[in-house]
Amino acid sequence: MKRLHLFVIKSFIGPLVLTFFIVLFILIMQFLWKYIDDLVGKGLELDTLSELLFYFSVSFIPMALPLAVLLASLMTFGNLGENLELTALKSAGISLQRIMTPLIILVIMISIGAFFFSNNVLPRANLKSRSLLWDIQQQRPELNIKAGSFYNGIDGFSIKVARKDPKTNLLRKVLIYDHRDKQGNVAVTYADSGYMRMSPGDSTLILTLYNGNSYNEVLEEDRKRIRRNIRTYPHRRETFKEQTVMLALTGFGLSRSDEDLFKKSYSMMNIDQLSFIRDSMIDILHERKEIFTSTMLQSHYYIYSRRMPSERKKIKISDPSSIPKFEPYAALSQLSFMEQLGAVDQALSYAKSSQRFITSSGSNLIHHTKRIRRYQIEWHRKFTLSFACFIFFFIGAPLGAIIRKGGLGMPVVVSVVFFVIYYVITLTGEKFVREDVLSPFTGMWISSIILLPLGIFLTYKATVDSAILNIDTYYNFLKKLLLHGKRALKMENGNY
Asked: CA 234: distance to chain centroid?
């Protein structure tokens, strides 16, 4: 029996490793496709790009592992069924449950390891990857001055080049506006031609200009004229045959942000941190609701009430029976016409003020509740992704035993279909939790609740050798159906 268990485990480990790296590669390609605009043209070094891909690869492991388990289990038992090895084992009196036992233990270990990975390693990987991606997104692109348009990427300067020679890098009709003093276009340099190069440390742009002029308008400091709001700009022009202009480049290198700025995000926390933040925010939410209730009672409902404060606290807005009955028409009939108009206007003003308070307070409470839901979703996600490995095994293994098709053909199609179903249900439940339609437990575990009975059903069908998903069964059924149809058609035509 030990040899059988080792054989089954070896048959499972190979496809698991293969499919895991295939799925991980697909997820990395999806990430690159999504953020390609933020990465291209930034002059990133190879080690920075490798670091980014490594951290994002680690953060994709919890998503890639369940799909890899599903695909590997389906391929393993599909190969065993296609090579008639599964049939031979059952003929020897070994049940499907005993064949699956070593893999069940292995998958349980993988699920436990996935949980500890999601709780301890994943928050750190998310922190590293998200902070590095943020730094790359904030990095300014490489210097790229295009001909025929102004380039404003250098702080304090606006540069325009009429033409650029791609072979010699010669610039024609170079126009430079100096805006460092923030007084408008008072300093202008024009050159007939020139060359552009970077300093060895890429910190300075060096422009060598030929046959040009520099124009400067100097602000005249005359107190009398300034008091009269009269300013003159004396003009100064300098002609040069060759001039070197050095422009300091700031913001073009990659600057790393402090990672502590991102630690408060829910995806960068473990279970203990999520529980602490969630409980603290729930206490704050209850406190805000109590403040809202007391403010409504004291400042909006009882405007001129003579009730004692102790009596006000006993009245709850949610309980209509606790609100004393009031007859507005009887009270208004005791006032004069002008006093009635004043009372109505004042009541409308109080009502509008209460409405504005309820609207603003309600939106704040809803926003705070949605923030709590984010942390609750992430708390449950630590468990659901790990439990998904266990569920997908009990879907893939019996499916492979029923379909009896190995390789990367049919198993890939079936695995993708089930994973898409799981992913869509998970996203829908998560959205309902964020919108406060479902509770966090129901919304995050609804996909597992739906697929777990399916796995149990498929395991039962595979145990009793059901042909419910065997393609040959349906093919033979359709073949017999067509044959009976042809015979019936011949009998109607009188051939029999």
From this structure: 57
- What whole-number distance in Å separates Cα of residue 228 and Cα of residue 225? 5
- The token pair that represents 344 in the structure block: 């109505």
CA–CA gap between residue 298 and residue 321 (Å, rounded): 18
pTM of the predicted structure, to 2 decimals: 0.66
* Beta-sheet pairing, 187-198 with 171-178: antiparallel
pLDDT at 351: 84
Q: Cα–Cα distances in Å, from 59 out to 51, 56, 65, 80, 270?
A: 12, 5, 11, 33, 14
3-state secondary structure the chain: CHHHHHHHHHHHHHHHHHHHHHHHHHHHHHHHHHCHHHHCCCCCCHHHHHHHHHHHHHHHHHHHHHHHHHHHHHHHHHHHHHCCHHHHHHHCCCCHHHHHHHHHHHHHHHHHHHHHHHHHHHHHHHHHHHHHHHHHHHCCCCCCCCECCEECCCCCEEEEEEEECCCCCCEEEEEEEECCCCCCCCEEEEEEEEEEEECCCCCEEEEEEEEEEEEEECCCCCHHHHHCCCCCCCEEEEEEEEEEEEEECCCCCCCCCCHHHHCCCHHHCCHHHHHHHHHHHHHHHHHHHHHHHHHHHHHHHCCCCCCCHHHHHCCCCCCHHHCCCCCHHHHHCCCCHHHHHHHHHHHHHHHHHHHHHHHHHHHHHHHHHHHHHHHHHHHHHHHHHHHHHHHHHHHHHHHHHHHCCCCCCHHHHHHHHHHHHHHHHHHHHHHHHHCCCCCHHHHHHHHHHHHHHHHHHHHHHHHCCCCCCCHHHHHHHHHHHHHHHHHHHHHHCCCC
Nearest-5° Cα angle at 170, 165 to 171: 95
Going from the first residue of the chain to its last (496 residues), give the mean pLDDT of each consecutive group of 10, the final group possibly shorter: 80 88 89 78 74 88 88 85 77 79 89 90 86 73 71 80 82 86 80 82 78 78 52 73 80 59 77 88 87 78 51 48 61 75 82 85 86 88 88 85 74 81 89 87 89 84 66 66 70 58
pLDDT digits (tens, 9 = 90+) for 54-98: 988 998 888 889 888 988 888 888 888 777 777 787 777 777 788
Look up residue 303 and give its two tokens. Answer: 């405007």
Q: Which of 189, 186, 163 is nearest to 176 (CA)?
A: 189
Q: What is the pLDDT of residue 109?
A: 92
Main-chain dihedrals φ then ψ at residue 178, nearest 5 degrees: -100, 110
Buried b (16+ CB within 10 A) or exposed e, 169-184: eebeebebbbeeeeee
Quick one: pLDDT at residue 496? 45
